[in-house]
């Protein structure tokens, strides 16, 4: 084995320029694979993190996933119901106090009850459509992502006395209002109520900054003429991955539709899986191109060293040694390329992490490219590189091992 290794090193060193080019090809492929994986994984992780942080892990609403069964369906084996007229009642979660008390006994996290109604916010001669959300400030502070985004005031100011409201700074700018001014909220039923602005927030999400207004729960119930009603329970879990199980239990017990964040964003998560497949396909293609460089140099060596191979076989070296020798040459080039690729990939990833920019027009503000540092990126890129190097070394090695030494020495080949 040491003799075979020594001969393999001699072959590689004998073609220094080609060897260096092949190593650089592998190194560049590994480096770009690492940098691309870090950037794409970082973007995906940042996107999922924003989904988790900006929306409840489980949202229970006053909707039903399926229509309730009618009494006739339970009495008769076959029943066709058409033209059913629903009762004229205002939707809402029935007995919200009992529902909240039950959730308190087992939910591994925090939750907040609210009443959301559509309305219009007016100030001076301007108005803006908004979702008026009635909340309990203490519970809302434990689940809302807005708690860390206040420019002025806070949710706690809602309970300071009087009719108070918290709105986004974009809505305030559109209305021409500022902190401390009094605005008028108009419900969809035409009821009006004056509120004083005691808080301004800026999340960077346009739909939220210009379309949401938070008031006390009792004020929202008065504005919408729905006393003691709520229509949404938002849950933040200690472990976001347990959201489907919590949603299933809540829906089974309460009867209302409970949606986990994974279900609410199912199409987006499927798109991320497809993107990962594309990413690793591109990584494999890069490594395949680098493998052609290794194949080229090993193939050239086998062609130029045909007489040496014939002599070695005539001296008693078996075909397995021939295959092993050229396979080691391919793996040696691949391993050297991986080592340099790790260093270059680390440098490229660090350079990408230092890129600074801001995007405000899209609704999300960013100051740096999202980068994920993971040893798996380095190991997967190296695995692709070594696999392509092994294949690139094995193919000419198999051909060299099959050479007939008599034909070569006689000059027949």
UniProtKB/TrEMBL annotation:
GO terms for biological process: lipoprotein localization to outer membrane. It holds the Pfam family FtsX. It is a multi-pass membrane protein. Residues 282-405 form the ABC3 transporter permease C-terminal domain. Its main location: membrane. This is ABC transporter. Belongs to the ABC-4 integral membrane protein family. LolC/E subfamily. It is found in: Cell membrane. One of its GO terms (cellular component) is plasma membrane protein complex. The chain crosses the membrane at residues 20-40, 277-298, 331-351, 371-395. It comes from the Bacteria. InterPro entries: ABC3_permease_C, Lipoprotein-release_system, MacB_PCD. Residues 19-251 form the MacB-like periplasmic core domain. Keywords: Cell membrane, Lipoprotein, Membrane, Transmembrane, Transmembrane helix. Signal peptide: none annotated.
